[in-house]
Amino acid sequence: MKRKSSSREEWAAQIAALDAPVVRKEPITVDRIVTTALALVETEGFAALTMRRVAAALGTGPASLYAHVRNKAALDDLLIGTLSRNVSVPTPHAARWRAQFVEVCGQLRDQFLRYPGIAQAALAAAPANLDTLRITEGLLGILLAGGVAPKPAAWAIDAALLYVSAYTVEASLRRHPDRAEDSRVVDRDEILARLRMLPVSRFPHTVEHADKLNSGEGHERFEFTLQLLLNGL
Amino acid sequence: MKRKSSSREEWAAQIAALDAPVVRKEPITVDRIVTTALALVETEGFAALTMRRVAAALGTGPASLYAHVRNKAALDDLLIGTLSRNVSVPTPHAARWRAQFVEVCGQLRDQFLRYPGIAQAALAAAPANLDTLRITEGLLGILLAGGVAPKPAAWAIDAALLYVSAYTVEASLRRHPDRAEDSRVVDRDEILARLRMLPVSRFPHTVEHADKLNSGEGHERFEFTLQLLLNGL
DNA sequence: CAGTTGACACGAACAGTGTTCGTCCGTAGA
DNA sequence: TCTACGGACGAACACTGTTCGTGTCAACTG
């Protein structure tokens, strides 16, 4: 009972606590951290994912997070693990192996695009994470069922996952250029105009085929690339 | 002459300046900044590339750099521009277009690998930079000479450059894991051991072909992927 | 030759980052 | 009932990119 020297503020806080004594502040868990972090990335992009901002969204300080997550890097790993868990891998169907492969990669792509810039973390954590290994396993099953030899299959999967990450990183940067205007170009017509502006003497092919260089509606280019990879197997 | 209140330190500095009055401090230029930055990245990795550290290496403070470089992002762009300028694109030879394509991509890969982690900047600045456009132009010439249609050529180039960046980013992170030991695995045998440790029930294919998953000496996988892309054209 | 101008260098500061230390406290076990 | 322990967290450290204002030197101008 040595708290006889409590300040006025503490006293007021104690009185205020009388109102809601039962609804104890919900404890911080890894799940709550991950959920909050994902919401933050979804609305403000990966660059805004900060220990401080996650903590603030949880109504606490940054130090509180380190009891549940070793690192910012560890948090990133958790995020891409969660995203990977959202990808469902079908049971291999020998006749449709190409379509199945593209479909799984497309799921991953959509997950990454939903949380802009998070693929940067995926590039860092690729091989270590258990949840991404589940996807690798699934893709391997699909390719093996399609009659592809193990080694080319493994290498093609690696290339495809790398491509998915790079594709989504680039797509996110194009849409979310930090501050709407600042030397970064977003508009596609603008890019086309700049390509046409190049000196024909030094960039003959680029100028001539400028329209093809940045063409492709939706994810046409994405699927084109994957088909390219698969057709070579 | 209102400097009569100079402190003792200033006085000492003035005396010291008598020794070398002619060798005026070399002015800061964009070239010196780029050279210093590249040396820094080469020895300590892209994560160590800091305005402050570049400035310190030049014997000044960070504010001095902003007279020559708008941003850290602008500096990054300059760096990958310089690296791109080191890549020499051959004049297209119709019969050897595949080899030429792979060779150019290999040059770019080696540039990126020499400066660990710098490919992260390449992923961000890809389409805007003039020097990388020179490479795109060269690759386009090679593919067109090989008889590839413009649109597939353009898309394949995009995919290949994306893959080069992703490949080098991942390779750099594997070699340079921030702090030698900290949940990140470097050793290849270690990765293999961990893959074999997986439960066979859930990861049958991964366990069975673990040795193929991370096989490939040198840049075998790199060239395999590029060949895959090219064979589909 | 004297004087002004303008570009560059830079010290100091601001707002923000990841991470750690030490303290508090509430709950569970003895 | 007392104790130990693990989570919560305030404060601080060492950084980051960037800006403001001041200084200082060079070259052009009258």
From TrEMBL, chains A, B:
<dbReference type="GO" id="GO:0000976">
    <property type="term" value="F:transcription cis-regulatory region binding"/>
</dbReference>
<keyword id="KW-0238">DNA-binding</keyword>
<keyword id="KW-0804">Transcription</keyword>
<dbReference type="InterPro" id="IPR004111">
    <property type="entry name" value="Repressor_TetR_C"/>
</dbReference>
<dbReference type="InterPro" id="IPR036271">
    <property type="entry name" value="Tet_transcr_reg_TetR-rel_C_sf"/>
</dbReference>
<feature type="DNA-binding region" description="H-T-H motif">
    <location>
        <begin position="50"/>
        <end position="69"/>
    </location>
</feature>
<dbReference type="InterPro" id="IPR009057">
    <property type="entry name" value="Homeodomain-like_sf"/>
</dbReference>
<feature type="domain" description="HTH tetR-type">
    <location>
        <begin position="27"/>
        <end position="87"/>
    </location>
</feature>
<keyword id="KW-0805">Transcription regulation</keyword>
<dbReference type="InterPro" id="IPR001647">
    <property type="entry name" value="HTH_TetR"/>
</dbReference>
<dbReference type="GO" id="GO:0045892">
    <property type="term" value="P:negative regulation of DNA-templated transcription"/>
</dbReference>
<dbReference type="Pfam" id="PF02909">
    <property type="entry name" value="TetR_C_1"/>
</dbReference>
<dbReference type="GO" id="GO:0003700">
    <property type="term" value="F:DNA-binding transcription factor activity"/>
</dbReference>
<dbReference type="InterPro" id="IPR050109">
    <property type="entry name" value="HTH-type_TetR-like_transc_reg"/>
</dbReference>
<protein>
    <submittedName>
        <fullName>TetR family transcriptional regulator</fullName>
    </submittedName>
</protein>
<dbReference type="Pfam" id="PF00440">
    <property type="entry name" value="TetR_N"/>
</dbReference>
